[in-house]
Amino acid sequence: MAAAGGGGGAPATATAAPTPTLAAWDTVLPADLVEVCPSDPALVACGTYLLESGASEGSSSGASQRKRGAIKLVAITPTAADGGDGVAITPLHSVDTAAVFDAKWLPAHERQLLVAVTSDGAGVQALELVGRWHADGGAPPELRLLHHTQLAPDVLDTSALSVALLPPLDAACVDPVVAPLAVSRSDGRITVTSYSTAAGFGAEYGSEAGLPPPRTWLAHTYDGATPAEVWTVAAVTPPMGGGGAGWLLWSGADDGLLKAWDARASSRAPAWTNRAHGAGVCAIEQHPAHAHLVATGSYDEVLRVWDQRNMAEPVAAVETGGGVWRIRWHPHAPDTAVAACMYAGAAVINLSPLPLESGAGAPWLPSTASVSFMQRSHTSIVYGAAWLPHLADGASATTGGPIATCSFYDHALHVWRPTALS
User: Fold this and answer.
1) What was the pLDDT predicted at 123?
2) 264: helix, coil or strand?
3) What is the pLDDT of residue 175?
């Protein structure tokens, strides 16, 4: 296994290992995301996207651009047979939509909500999880559509590509739920808006609510005029202290640029621009325990880890063999992440050295990143990945527990367990 340091060192090279697939399920339509429900981790939302037969991505005809999809709710649970390592994937409910590109669960609350972004005029919709999952029977839970809006209603072939939950999220834990959001779009724009279970999308709450003002701006272009698809957007909080105060909105796009924005300011100029990626920037994921660390993924097939206090160069980087579309840090193992690496499969990433113990001194700075495991059971593009910590047991303490991944043209959802993390 090769490893490389951050900075000017060559990125580490991916290695492969045998893959035990615990369960597989046909999603019917091509699958591109998996998101674990925070209030019941056995429940997983899976998004799908199909370009209708005869349609062409490059066509100028609105009729030929029709995309459709669904948000599927499944339960992923252990099976008790022989006390073994079995896992069951149980389909519970499906909501037909336009093509789904991203979705985020709001923080756990007595009303559990999911916000999804779609292809129909930069569509955004809010759904509520109704009912509870009972393995021994009873009515299954379902997703109920609460509100839907189009950020670009006059340009229906504009897609909303990603959604980020913005600080402060305290308001998302009361009733009516109020959640500030950022949505990235295929027309090069970013929209900041808010959602309320009482008033829907785009309601004005005033500065006293502590929410950023709603606005839309052209964020990424190829040449100063031609819009570049903004593949990803994320709220990145400051490295130490301050809670959500001082956060910046990071965006990555097909122009190969990573930018940061002050979404509360009226200026349309980025706070900074990073040009380190060799192709489009697809993923941004802040570390949940070490806020100074942010991982980015790119079509250039490199996962980079940044110290946001000094963005001159990444502190660690690793070549994955495929475009890094989505990254998820492990919720309990701070030196581990899983990445959806498109044609290469899914990669388990390890950082070293290990993090300092809590309160033991300066913030942890990893110096190397390596691929400890590569999942190649999918036969198509892997776009979605999520840890399933509720399935972890003593045997998985050293492997990070099972992972759910989904892939596109083979329309598959797989649950698998890495054999080892080094």
Assistant:
1) 97
2) coil
3) 66
* Beta bridge partner(s), residue 253: none
Best mean pLDDT range from 132-141, 190-199, 279-288: 279-288
The answer to whether the beta carbons of residues 33 and 47 sit under 8 Å apart is: yes
Query: Which residue, among 284, 289, 338, has the nearest Cα to 314 in the 3D structure?
Result: 284
pLDDT (tens digit per residue) in 122-164: 999 999 999 988 877 788 999 999 999 999 999 999 999 999 9
Residues β-bridged to residue 349: 337, 371
DSSP 364: P
Q: What is the pLDDT of residues 291-323, one digit of tens each?
A: 999 999 999 999 999 999 999 999 999 999 999
Q: What angle do CA 177, 265, 166 make, to 5 degrees?
A: 30
The answer to whether 229 and 160 have CB atoms below 8 angstroms apart is: no
Q: Are 34 and 386 in contact (CB under 8 A)?
A: yes
In degrees to the nearest 10, what's the CA dihedral of 40, 172, 117, 293? -80
Q: Which two tokens stand for residue 202?
A: 């785009």
- Give me the count of residues in the chain: 422
* Antiparallel, parallel or unpaired: β 87-98 and 113-118: unpaired
Measured distance CA(371)–CA(384) in Å, rounded: 18
Which amino acid is residue 289, in one-letter code? A
Q: Which residue is it, tokens 């489009």?
A: 280
What's the pLDDT at 241?
54
CA gap 312, 318 in Å, rounded: 17
